[in-house]
Amino acid sequence: MGAWGPPPAAPKPGVIPLRPLGIPELLDGAVTAIRRYPKATLVPSFIVALALGAITFLTSLVSLTMYRGIGDLDPNTATGSDLAGIFGPTVVVGLVSFLVQIIATILLTGVITAVIGKAVLGQPMTPGQAWEVVRPRAWRLLGLGLLVGLIVGLGWCFCVIPGVVLAVYLSLSAAILVLERSTVTESMGRSWRLVRGAFWRTLGAVALLVVIYFVINLAIGVPFSIPEIVMPSVDSATLEVDETQFVINQVLATIGSVIVGTITLPFMAAGLSLIYIDRRMRTEGLDITLVRQSQGR
């Protein structure tokens, strides 16, 4: 040890090479970020997935009331009010559950995006620190998520191709809003500009993320759904419900959904964040700026 003390520690490498990336490197970077920072990625994902699983489970219990009502219904004397009383609570609870899931997923995506923004430089971030980054922009992030979902949904309604095109061009909006602290419309416009000129490459990367997402869903989720297939809790002919079997099957399905959500939610958010960073490195020389930051210059 010299008079000036020990040499400064070398900065920890980031989760990706600081240069334009190939698609395999993008996917590897998403996995590396989750493995290197599990507390900041998997813990908040598990909490959100557990909460959403509990909401879904409670919603399924509400549907038991619907099945009981159907069983007691006399088709010869049933009125519109009777049907509304049977199906209404289940529909309302289902819609509320769906809305809560959307909100929670959007906010979690923002938190994971903030973590990835630092992980590129090898700088850890706690879930609390990530939330402090997202919290001032939470309403903007929610508005962006709902607006992009509406636009893409309309595109899908008119034709599949416009929906795909819009989804790809706007896929980087959330990462831009969180990491660049921009407004909703600025984020959407900037996403469009970054993707422009690299549509097919971005489409390929996003499509591969979606394929992996569904493969994980099938590989983990399907086994937990087998009990409902082998031992169905609802008789398809009479709609009579074995309530004990119904609860058991729903518990197993909920466990599967929690595991799937814990893995897939951070993977998708990390993948989209890294696609955004790659586009900036290719079009704006962001890799040079990041190298300088990693070297403390």
Describe the SSE topology.
Layout: H1 23-36, H2 38-72, H3 80-119, H4 127-134, H5 138-158, H6 160-169, H7 173-180, H8 184-195, H9 199-230, H10 243-284, H11 286-294
Helix pairs in contact: 1-2, 1-10, 2-3, 2-10, 3-4, 3-5, 3-7, 3-10, 5-6, 5-7, 5-8, 7-8, 9-10
Which blocks of ≥5 consecutive residues have pLDDT under 50?
1-11
Output mean pLDDT: 82
- Amount of beta strand: under 5%
Assembly status: single chain
DSSP summary: helix tally: 11
Number of strands: 0
H-E order: HHHHHHHHHHH
C-alpha termini separation: 25 Å
Number of domains: 1
Give the overall form. Answer: globular
Largest sheet: none
Structural class: mainly alpha
Instruction: Specify Rg, calculated over alpha carbons.
Output: 23 Å
Structural account:
The chain is mainly alpha-helical and 297 residues long. The protein has 11 helices and no strands. α1 packs across α2, α1 (23-36) crosses α10 and α5 (138-158) crosses α8 (184-195).
Brief summary of the model shown:
By secondary structure, the protein is an all-alpha fold. The chain has helices spanning 23-36, 38-72, 80-119, 127-134, 138-158, 160-169, 173-180, 184-195, 199-230, 243-284, 286-294.
Descriptive terms for the model:
disordered N terminus, 0% strand
